[in-house]
């Protein structure tokens, strides 16, 4: 399994009693305390602090175990992006929120600016190479590389991690991200519609939009964010005054998050189905990102490489005039998750994700099947064409998981190699004599 940094022993750890929480109400006075959690149901790399956690009821169970004289109520508030969560947090109306790395920096900046400081207290899902963001084009688009975007209209959400990927990718391709393309600042759903209508030539977005549009046949990948080789992640932020007033409540949340992470690790298919049911997203798309070998790894530990990436992100937001300087070290506060996870925390800090594997989800099956090579997966698919719900393969260069039937396939002798984007496939072909891009149907035939 891919996500084993969070061991099953956390389920036992999470049942240990918590100390009484602070606050103006006195323990034993019978008062009701409402804890407000802001989350993004369709930003599925936050599910262990949002959609999945809510469906499992683990936070409520942890609060009921406090036995400090209070009655606890959880108010779950679902938002499309991190911006309104930040607005509500700085207004004192949301206690705990989850969002992506760039919105987290804006959360830190706004909190400090308004005298309502917030802190990054844990991580939900991450990809150490940056595979959570993807640039896609229309299915019939003639665009095949980043350089083809010069002078084109590209939809993204300014201030999001997907915008950060776009800016950095364009810069690497020698294109000025401010003048070389016409950037459309749009919410993901609006951008998806613009791509379908032809009013945008490309779309740069975060999980799960690229995978969803590709799965639906409404887009194809142009650029895999993992080519940047820079971590992207989502995390949990909490108001400083809330954390100080009710530390045991925050620790209860983080223990519940660890339980939800362990559940996702141990039941990846069921977890994907639960999230799909709650969000309306296809389970196959949820599994692409959150599955046993998915693009995202889930681990609450605030890893040093993620903090370092956050520091590098500040310059992108400053250039866009969305923030000034952000003191990332002051924003990060892992004392609560350290206490919640106990001795396992140190191991999680240094744990690294296992390489992605080729995986098939058979129809009417509660478990998936993994294969040593993409060619072996193709051979299985060729023999069970009517019995496949979804098939996933890792990019031969970046390791990013993608749908097998949507990947760009290269035949190199007896090897069959999948790629997320055409540009990386062509780069491989250019350095391997005799290798060539082949259609998916031919790849299946070769494998069988």
TrEMBL record:
Superkingdom classification of source: Bacteria
**UniProt-listed Gene3D superfamilies:** Periplasmic binding protein-like II
InterPro entries to which the protein is assigned, alphabetical: SsuA/THI5 (IPR015168)
Indicate whether GTP-binding appears among the record's keywords: no
Keyword line: Signal
The SsuA/THI5-like domain sits at: 85-271
Stored SUPFAM superfamilies: NosL/MerB-like, Periplasmic binding protein-like II
Identify the stretch annotated as signal peptide in this record.
Answer: 1-27
Q: Does the keyword Ligase apply?
A: no
Alphabetized PANTHER family for the sequence? ABC TRANSPORTER SUBSTRATE-BINDING PROTEIN (PTHR30024:SF45), ALIPHATIC SULFONATES-BINDING PROTEIN-RELATED (PTHR30024)
What name appears for this protein in its UniProt entry?
Answer: ABC transporter substrate-binding protein
Q: What is the lineage of its organism?
A: Bacteria, Bacillati, Actinomycetota, Actinomycetes, Kitasatosporales
